[in-house]
TrEMBL record:
Species, as recorded: Sinisalibacter aestuarii
Protein name per the record: DUF1697 domain-containing protein
PANTHER family: BLL4334 PROTEIN (PTHR36439), DUF1697 DOMAIN-CONTAINING PROTEIN (PTHR36439:SF1)
InterPro entries: DUF1697
Length: 181
């Protein structure tokens, strides 16, 4: 068995697409995975099991749509892949204020990102980097003020879901806590 992280995009935001984590943990258990644990209310789960990551995300999306009437994006990453993405965050000074650092986990490799537009949207205090699996942003003036943050997905050109460094580090810790499976 392997350890996995599941990131749901767009649930429990502003009172929309409500989904209790206890319901989501129960749903995953019915799909045959084990050791399911969640972190905060925004769709962050870790679990163990033998799955096909791409198909598992679609199965979760299908089940939520059938049960709740909306379809959030579900992205699944292996412990190793998730850990590598988090460890590659390029600005160590952001860890002093981990709410200023964000990672967009990408559903696919970007093929035609609009780097010029991303650069135009970035504030002078912001730093960003795009890789094959993530978009990294350091927004020391706050994510809520960032014009870049609100348009990342559009200009990267692939589906993505963002987590701040606090959440990313906690999920990595939870994955490590699952031990060797």
């Amino acid at each position: 068995m392997n350890a996995w992280v599941l990131l749901l995009r767009g649930i429990n935001v502003g009172g929309n697409h409500a989904l209790r984590m206890s319901d989501l943990r129960a749903l995953l258990a019915t799909l045959g995975v084990r050791n399911v644990a969640s972190y905060i209310q925004s769709g962050n789960l870790v679990f163990t099991g033998v799955i096909d990551a791409r198909n598992f995300g679609e199965i979760v999306e299908d089940e939520i749509e059938a049960q709740r009437g909306f379809r959030p994006r579900a992205m699944v990453f292996s412990r190793e892949n998730f850990g590598e993405i988090v460890a590659a965050y390029p600005w160590p000074d952001a860890f002093g204020d981990p709410t200023s650092g964000h990672i967009w986990f990408l559903a696919a490799r970007p093929t035609a990102p609009d780097m010029d537009e991303l650069g135009k949207l970035a504030a002078s205090s912001e730093r960003f980097r795009l890789t094959d699996s993530a978009f990294y942003l350091h927004a020391p003036d706050g994510i809520g003020r960032s014009k870049l943050a609100e348009k990342v997905e559009r200009h990267v050109g692939v589906a993505a879901t963002a987590r701040n460094l606090n959440t990313s580090l906690k999920l990595r810790e939870m994955l490590e806590g699952l031990g060797e499976v």
